[in-house]
Amino acid sequence: MTPETFAAAVAGRLIVSCQAGEGHPLRDTAALTRMARAAEGGGAAAIRCGGVGGVPDVAAVAAAVDVPVIGLTKDGTGGVFITPTVAAARAVAAAGAHVVAADATFRPRPDGRPVAATAEAVHDAGALFMADVSSLDEGVAAAKAGADAVATTLAGHTLPGPPPDGPDLDLVRALRDALPDALIVAEGRYHTPELAAAALEAGATCVVVGTAITDPQWIASRFAAALGPP
Ligand SMILES: CC(=O)N[C@H](C=O)[C@@H](O)[C@H](O)[C@H](O)COP(=O)(O)O
Questions:
Q1: Is the pTM of this model over 0.95?
Q2: What percent of the chain has pLDDT over 70?
Q3: Distances (CA, A) of 123 to 89, 127, 149, 178, 228
Q4: ipTM of this predicted structure
Q5: What ligand 1 atom has the least distance to the C-alpha of 51?
Q6: Position in ligand 1 atom list of the atom nearest CA 211
Q7: Alpha carbon 199 to chain centroid distance?
Q8: Whole-angstrom distance, CA of residue 210 vs CA of residue 189
Q9: Can you name a GO cellular component term (predicted)?
């Protein structure tokens, strides 16, 4: 898939992230694959998937849907954990991901390799590289390092303390100003259709929504909380 083909497939559209962390009741490749097919049926223009030990998820989803697949692995939950090494990026591409998403923050990477090494490995494998960043400077650096798409996935995740409740629309605006021709992905805490639409207005090419669509545990907890203490 070329960058142009991917951009044409996702421009102005919704991408759904189908993931479940360790210990989650949906942490099952078959369950997540069904979730991906349901999301595709609902209008997802691409599926983002993978996670801890997520290579089998990427392979299964890629075989089950007709839309592009953005794959990743996760290793832990602190520091650089999304497709943290060049070897992990190669494994995700080999599993059939059209696009490999990886951490492109300025934090130290476990294998000590630069982001450009991930970009090169992914391109050598015939896939595209989506850079997950937390700031404008990281996004600009990732684009220079060869990213085909820059995603706001890690906004709010590199500072001490928990991320805020809402998405970082300011980062979307700043990235669009700095990178007028780039494929900018709004991702992280887009919990309502209105917020997803606001991301496009802020300049995003497309929007990734995960939790609010694919985590029934999170959705149920919001309804339960609205009804008051048990
Ligand atoms: C920070 C991190 O680990 N983000 C992960 C990246 O793949 C996923 O856990 C998120 O679900 C995804 O980014 C979509 O975001 P949200 O679930 O907020 O719609």
A1: yes
A2: 100
A3: 10, 5, 13, 24, 51
A4: 0.98
A5: 7
A6: 17
A7: 15
A8: 8
A9: cytosol
